[in-house]
Amino acid sequence: MKKYLKYIILLVFIGGAFGFYMYNKPHKNISKAKTDLELSAIQLFADFENNEADANTKYLDKVMEIEGVVKDVTKDENGMTSITLDAGGEMFGVICQMDNLAKHKRTDFKEGETVKFKGICTGVLMDVVLVRCVEV
Question: What total of structural domains would you count in the chain?
Answer without folding.
Answer: 1
